[in-house]
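Q: Fold this one first, please.
A: Sequence and structure below.
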Amino acid sequence: MLISTKGRYALRVMAEIAADETGEYVPLAKIAEDQNISMKYLESIVVLLSKAGLLDGKRGKNGGYRLNRKASEYTVAEILEITEGGLAPVTCLEGSRNLCARANTCITLPVWEGLNRVIKDYLESITLEDIEKQKAAFNIEI
């Protein structure tokens, strides 16, 4: 599994918005500059996140984006699943049902199912709040 730039940037964007403790809308231009992401690419990312209900957007003066929930309620898995279309390490595990004709006889399927569980469990265990705490602990600029 390879996380695309869209997924990595989405996580950085969400972390930056979460770091703004004012609750105000964070301007897209500020995020683009801080994260060194083109406005066009950034717009495509925030549209996905907004449509999924993760962000609230506001146009005009004092516009931008803000979280719809507390940072502790967003997991890395949720953000990446939206931007990546899923986290499955193999195609046969991408849907809710394994449609592979070999699923009943595949001797390697348990390996992929186990890896899928490990990936999901790990990414579901990390929240935006955890990322913010890590940033503070290591004095990292987002």
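Q: Good. Now the second chain.
A: Here it is, same layout.
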Amino acid sequence: MPETPHNESHFLGSALVTDIVIGMSDGLTVPFALAAGLSGAGISTHTVVTAGLAEIAAGSIAMGLGGYLAGRTEIDHYNAELKREEWEVDNLPEREKQEVREIFADMGISPATQELVVEEMSKDKQKWIDFMMRYELGLEKPDAKRATRSAMNIGLSYIVGGLVPLTPYFFTDTAFDGLKYSAIVTVCCLLVFGYFKARFTGQNPVQGAIRVAIIGSVAATAAFLIAGVLNK
């Protein structure tokens, strides 16, 4: 009787999701807190909008640049370790072979099989180096375009997230009215965002939604109260 094919479903967009989570979480929270603080200070709606747009622009650039630098650091680190591993394979082949044996020994491979695999692997220098990079150092070759894509993903996610708490201010006459609608819209978005963030990261979705909403709300409330106290 033929076996039923087993199809495994894996989520492959982890890098994209990570970027979106980083950008969106700060984009929803920071401009929301800023707008709440300015509203608490009794500043006009126009000023809140102007300051909010300026913050979104600056924040998206800063966050995007941070993502780019993180991506470049990963690439530079990998290349540096790759050069070191290439030198060791060329100049210290016996030591590198012993390290391969130790890796297979940890996997429970018998000594006889270790010798066969080591000798076969040592015939192909590139595969040997790739093996050492992955199993000795735990490094996967990074995507050369990852840094640029990460910067764009994080920056755009920050802009999208930042416009959520700021948009209600475009349609209200007073900053306080804008804050009320902004709070409703932003908290709802934080709940949705937290829910899907938790699902993608394997956490409890409901707890994740509540946690993210509380963090954003506390930040905005603190900013509003502090601004109100300082403005007295």
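Q: Anything worth noting on the second one?
A: Residues 14-226 form one domain.
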